[in-house]
Amino acid sequence: MKLFLDSANIEEIREVAGWGVLDGVTTNPSLCSKESAGFEENIRAICALTPGPVSAECVSLQADAIVPEARALAKLAPNIAVKIPVGVEGLKAAKRLAAEGIAVNMTLIFSAGQALLAAKAGARFVSPFIGRLDDVSEDGMALIDEIVQIFDNYDIKTEVIVASVRHPRHVIEAARLGADIATVPFGVMEKLVRHPLTDIGVERFLADWRKVKK
Q1: Does residue 165 have a pLDDT over 90?
Q2: pTM for the structure as a whole
Q3: What is the DSSP letter of 185?
Q4: Distance CA 101, CA 81 (A)
């Protein structure tokens, strides 16, 4: 399973890239609004840090406006994937953009039906938001299971990005279910790398090493 970082912060992205585990990045308007750099400058800088896909979100709501906005975003770097919310207008735009070879990440997916329609419209990625489903007492990982099974049944090439990840178990469950990608906030990425028993083990080794006669 590929790991994307869900962040628009250059330092976070550079740090995780240095670990050797970064396969791509997802951003959204909320994340970008927290950064001091201009939007286009920030996206270009992110794209330079990873050869993998970098999602940049369209804010237009009608297909005739989404398409030119997406084209402009795609020109920022060759590894841009334009992020479009699912809906009738989003599907229309995705079909047109896919025909032009522009990668589309259809976002705000909350049902298997939405994911299926997005795939049929030509989206390269679908982003089901599991944490937000959990927030309203629905089973977010059950949705991932449904989407992965449907895509496997019909050999659909659209990749499933598990989004709205809240904790390390979401990442592990996504991997167990066969999702293609999990997009993970920096704080959760840090938690994935750590375990209290590892910390205890390192401290014991160091304590014992200090007793070794030099």
Answers
A1: yes
A2: 0.96
A3: -
A4: 10
Instruction: Give the 3-state secondary structure of residue 214.
Output: coil
Catalytic site includes residue 95 = no
| Segments forming the whole domain that contains residue 191 | 2-211
Please count the structural domains in the chain. 1
Torsion angle of C-alpha atoms 1, 196, 169, 21, degrees rounded to 10: -20
Nearest to 122 by CA among 148, 150, 100, 145: 100
**What does the pLDDT look like over 50-70, one tens digit per residue?**
999 999 999 999 999 999 999
* 26: nearest Cα among 189, 211, 197, 198: 189
Distance of CA 209 to the CA centre of its chain: 42
Q: Look at residue 124 and tell me whether its pLDDT is greater than 90.
A: yes
Catalytic pick among 34, 75, 83, 214: 83
Q: DSSP alpha helices (H): ranges in 23-81?
A: 29-33, 39-49, 63-74
Contact 163, 26 (CB under 8 A): yes
Give the CATH number of the domain where residue 25 resides: 3.20.20.70
pLDDT tens-digit readout, 1-55: 999 999 999 999 999 999 999 999 999 999 999 999 999 999 999 999 999 999 9
- From CA 182, how far away is CA 3, in angstroms rounded? 5
